[in-house]
Amino acid sequence: MLRYAIKRLLELIPTTFGILVLTFLLFHVVGGSPAEVILGKNATKESIAAFNHKYGYDRPLLVNFTDDKPVWDSQFLNFVGNLAKGDLGISTEYDEPVADILKRGVGPSLSLTVPILIVGTLVALSLALLCAAFRGRCMDKAVLVLSTVLMSVNYVVWVLAGQFILAYKLKLFPLWGYANAAYLVLPVVIGVFSSLGVDVRFFRTAILDEIYKPYVRTARAKGLSNAAVLVKHVLRNSLIPIVTYISLSIPYLFTGSLMLESFFGIPGLGNVSLNAIHSADMAVVRAVVVLGALLYQGVNLVTDLAYAWLDPRVRLG
User: What span, in angstroms and rounded, lies between the C-alpha atoms of 42 and 22?
Assistant: First the structure.
């Protein structure tokens, strides 16, 4: 496993470099002049020049051959070098380091997204196991119908209906803010219900793929109860697709939920990213994109390593 982990870590180097190149091109070349976007079309040449000099946009794009400064004094190489030092740049909206802005947003984002992931996964797995235990019966059909209904409701409808009915009309939850844990209950409930339909159907399919295999008949022939067979054998052997499915959402735990945070006034990374897009604060948007991509790679590596622990039949090579 150690050789495999080292090999995968080495493979991350060219992938990460490609991500940095693509991110740089999107925000420095394709996106146009940041100074014109932020200062507006009526900005003077002097103000644009001052802006470009302050944030380093007056340097050559890739390699510096234009003056007596070092060849690595370019926008791209400075961008990569600053990232290696943990410097994510300066926010043009707040005029402070982007790293400080992201640090303030990580806590609120995790306090929202982690409960959604944990509660949603436990509820969906429980319903999927019930469907598998009573497959083809009324319980299974009722959960499938409920899942289809939940999948059919648009995410925005869940947010607006929850805010209007539960918060505004019934006064059961706070409507806006992040003063204490009570302000997170409604967005967590909405986040769980909005994804429950898709999760239940996927988990049910993964479990049913295992339930008809020969080892299940053998376990039942030995006298094990249905509950023991489902939990100890079927669930364990169906964990690889389930873990893969769950791992895809882990990077978003850190980058936050754009919709929920913006609608409920939670100052997490999702809300920060949305505000940065509206204010053309490209340094913040770029940092969120890069961090999200790096997190995605790291989670994929950990997930691959977890396969061998979950299933001894898996051989990492």
Answer: 30
